[in-house]
């Protein structure tokens, strides 16, 4: 809708792509932020993911996305 109203701009497709990526990551983000998650849940996730990426205090969404964690969304939400 806005693309038709605004002059040509290379930022719009890039921003749109980032929004789509973020929306796809939301179920994983919400599952990992579940306040009822216990250590046993994180232990199961560690086995699923194959890495201790979740224990990292400096964990960022970009780092999660690089681990291809979105391919495991259904399994992660089941654990959480």
From TrEMBL:
* Transmembrane regions: none
Example of a GO cellular component annotation carried by this entry: dynein complex
Residues forming the Dynein heavy chain linker domain are: 2-79
List, in alphabetical order, the Gene Ontology terms for molecular function in this entry: dynein intermediate chain binding; dynein light intermediate chain binding
Report the domain of life of the source organism. Answer: Eukaryota
Tell me which Gene Ontology terms the entry assigns under biological process. microtubule-based movement
Q: What is this protein called?
A: Dynein heavy chain linker domain-containing protein
The record lists the organism as: Rotaria magnacalcarata
């Amino acid at each position: 809708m806005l693309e038709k109203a605004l002059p040509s701009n290379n930022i719009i497709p890039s921003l749109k792509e980032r929004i789509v990526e973020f929306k796809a990551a939301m179920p994983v983000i919400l599952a990992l932020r579940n306040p009822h998650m216990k250590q046993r849940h994180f232990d199961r996730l560690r086995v699923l993911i194959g890495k201790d990426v979740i224990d990292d205090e400096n964990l960022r969404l970009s780092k999660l996305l690089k681990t291809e964690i979105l391919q495991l969304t259904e399994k992660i939400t089941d654990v959480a």
